[in-house]
Design brief:
alpha/beta, 14% strand, five-stranded parallel sheet, single chain, 9 strands, 8 helices, elongated
Length: 286
């Protein structure tokens, strides 16, 4: 369970609805740089992001704080032991069945693939009741802990890492930037690749001419509607060329979200073919 706390920014409101992300890891020092600098570092200073790490080693069993053991049935590798991981999760997220227990994520190659829509969903959970990410290690975690204390398993993709820390960093970063105020300009996130299922189109900055190459004239026109139209068309073009799977999924969503026949059709993303335009003009006697 978590509550709002005062922001460390004197110019901010006295209390901020902040995202709470806790990471359970064997290597807490790995996270000091990524979450202490730049955008996320400033978000923490302003009280928009409550980010913390929990070192698993003190929860280890016995004199040597043992965290792993061999699997029953034999086989290569080691498994994270259930007792220390369960104790760490209960302290960080709350015991199973407790009121307002934080949502627990476990980084695992057998988990559901993490995509942008997942970042949006997890951001809501990080706001309330809070998000706890357990970094996977070795050959995995005793299944009994997963069954009783893990809400979902998540994977970055079909590849294997030496540990779950890098995956946890990526997930936490993607989730944290969804919070209002974290990016400074709240219009930035909706323009990111994948936010609406499409890739971003090309971007340009000064100088206007670089190595003899200019920029699309529309970006210098000052016509905001035309600029937005160009960006949308370029986003569709790039997605169609480079990620046809994303483009096809976007097209399917557009068809499923189409209004009933009585409603006016939405504006098209592409210019009407000239042949069709000419046909309409002939029918009107133009």
């Amino acid at each position: 369970m978590r509550e709002n706390r005062p922001s460390s920014d004197p110019g901010a409101p006295p209390f901020v609805n902040h995202l709470s992300i806790t990471i359970l890891t064997l290597f807490p020092a790995w996270f000091e740089g990524p979450f202490g600098e730049s955008i996320l570092g400033r978000a923490r200073e302003r009280g928009l992001l409550d980010f913390r790490t929990v070192d698993l080693r003190p929860y280890g069993v016995g004199k040597h704080r043992k965290l792993d053991d061999t699997p029953y049935g034999g086989g290569g590798g080691m498994l994270l032991k259930p007792e220390p991981i369960a104790a760490a999760l209960d302290e960080a997220a709350g015991a199973p069945g407790s009121e307002r227990r934080a949502h627990v994520l476990y980084t695992s190659p057998r988990g559901r693939r993490f995509v942008q829509d997942e970042a949006k969903r997890l951001a809501e959970l990080a706001l309330d009741p809070g998000l706890v990410i357990l970094c996977g290690h070795y050959e995995g975690l005793d299944e009994r802990v997963i069954e009783t204390r893990v809400d979902e398993e998540v994977s970055l993709g079909d590849f294997v890492l030496t540990g779950g820390e890098i995956a946890a960093m990526a997930i936490a970063d993607a989730v944290a930037r969804m919070a209002p105020g974290v990016l400074g300009n709240d219009a930035s996130a909706p323009n990111d690749s994948f936010f609406d299922g499409l890739l971003e189109g090309p971007h340009y900055t000064r100088p206007e001419v670089f190595e003899g190459r200019g920029i699309p004239p529309v970006l210098l026109s000052g016509h905001h509607a035309e600029i937005e139209r160009w960006r949308r068309e370029e986003s569709l073009r790039v997605t169609r060329e480079r990620r046809p799977d994303l483009y096809d999924a976007w097209r399917r969503r557009q068809r499923s979200e189409a209004p009933p026949p009585d409603d006016p059709p939405p504006p098209t993303d592409f210019a009407e073919p000239q042949a069709l335009t000419g046909l309409r003009r002939r029918r009107r006697g133009a």
